[in-house]
Amino acid sequence: MLAYTVRRLLTAVPVMGVVALVVFSLLYLTPGDPAQVLAGDTATPEQIAKIRTSLGLDEEAHLRFARWLWHVVQGDLGVSIFSGEPVTHMIGQRLQPTFSLLLLAVVISVGLGVPFGVAAAARPDSWRDRALTVFTTLGFSLPAFIAGYALAFLFATTLKWLPVQGFTPLSDGPALWLRNLILPAVTLSLVYGAIIARVTRASMLDVLSEDYIRTARAKGVAPRIILFRHALKNAAVPVITIIGIGVATLIGSAVITENVFAIPGIGRLTVDAILHRDYPVIQGVVLMLSAAYVLVNVAVDLSYTLLDPRIRY
What we know:
mainly alpha
């Protein structure tokens, strides 16, 4: 197990190298002259040259990439062009709202999607199976911003049960923290939970048709034990896979959801940085989110070995 873990972690190193190269190239792949765009139409040549020097655009690309990568390894993501703050500090201030939102969304999605999928697979073509179809269709069909506005209008504006915007740190109390995150987390969970439910149902149906399941039924094993002890464990690999892949969906949807509910997280920071062409912030955010996604996939791969030890070989 330890050797497999080390090998899997080592394979993530070249992946992050490619990600770093792509992130660094964002500055050069942008249409037009970045220095001219940042300086504005009324800027003098001297001002444009000063911005170009501050961005390092007057140096050889490979030299600048090597220096930038060395600073990244040391934890230095540069300085914001507009605010003058270190990018690492700006991202650190936004981590708690975003990761709190993503964590709660994952808990809700898995907590609802897996039981719904198991219940639907236990009795195909029943009312539970049809209800799951309606739920997943609704989840797939509603864009995040429409679902967010609808939930905010119903539970915040009409019923006044929950706040419509903002974020309360966990240090101010779990109740307030949870109260502010319920609506945006449910918004994110609609699509993610629908995907998990559909994959769980399909994977469970495949396992329930195996010979050893029929043998267990013939021996009189309780249906609940068959579902959760025999079938669910063997059907868990595709479910774990889709949970890991769905993190990318959550990250993308979080950008929209944070703007809908005015949550001061990474999503709003990314939108502001793109609107202002703040390249160091854009590069830092993309690199950080990419690293998080790579680590999630490594964790998913390692979890396979707990479910099926044959995978490590």
